[in-house]
Amino acid sequence: QVQLVESGGGMVQAGSSLRLSCVASGPPGNSYVMSWFRQAPGKEREFVATLSWDGGSAYYADSVKGRFTISRGNTENTVFLQMNSLRPEDTAIYYCGDGATMDVARIAHWGQGTQVTVSS
């Protein structure tokens, strides 16, 4: 069973930065590629960022391009989301999902989420 644990959320002012982390665990020998999604109150979960399977390419939602950076940690089971120049509209619960995809429906396992709140 794959488990994902996010951390790093918080309450910040507009223009601030946060760094989210996601750590995956599961059966020995598994390799992981994780993607980031977010869900604002009253809205559907949406894609934020993902890496290609080899980690060589990153893809972002237009709304975060140029402000957010996804990266892999020193071990394959860790992924980060560096969020700079945060805006109030970035307020959401941020989820880590297993898989290199922009499609919510293709994610089999989710973390519990970490709350990001940005005040103006």
List its traits.
120 residues; mainly beta; six-stranded mixed beta sheet; four-stranded antiparallel beta sheet; 0% helix; globular
What's the structural blueprint in terms of helices and strands?
Layout: E1 3-7, E2 10-13, E3 18-25, E4 34-39, E5 46-51, E6 58-60, E7 68-72, E8 78-83, E9 92-98, E10 114-119
Parallel strand pairs: 2-10
Antiparallel strand pairs: 1-3, 3-8, 4-5, 4-9, 5-6, 7-8, 9-10
Overview of this protein structure:
It is a single chain. Helix content is 0%, strand content 47%. The protein is mainly β and 120 residues long. The strands form two sheets. It has a six-stranded mixed sheet with strand order 2-10-9-4-5-6, with no helix packed on it. A four-stranded antiparallel sheet has the order 1-3-8-7, with no helix packed on it. Strand 5 and strand 6 form a beta hairpin. The termini are far apart.
Summed up:
The chain has 120 residues and is mostly beta strands.
Q: What is the average per-residue confidence, as pLDDT, rounded to a whole number?
A: 94
> In which range does the helix fraction lie?
under 10%
Structural class: mainly beta
Largest beta-sheet details: 6 strands, mixed
Rg for CA atoms: 13 Å
What is the strand tally?
Answer: 10
How do the strands of the widest beta sheet line up side by side?
Answer: 2-10-9-4-5-6
Distance between the termini: 40 Å
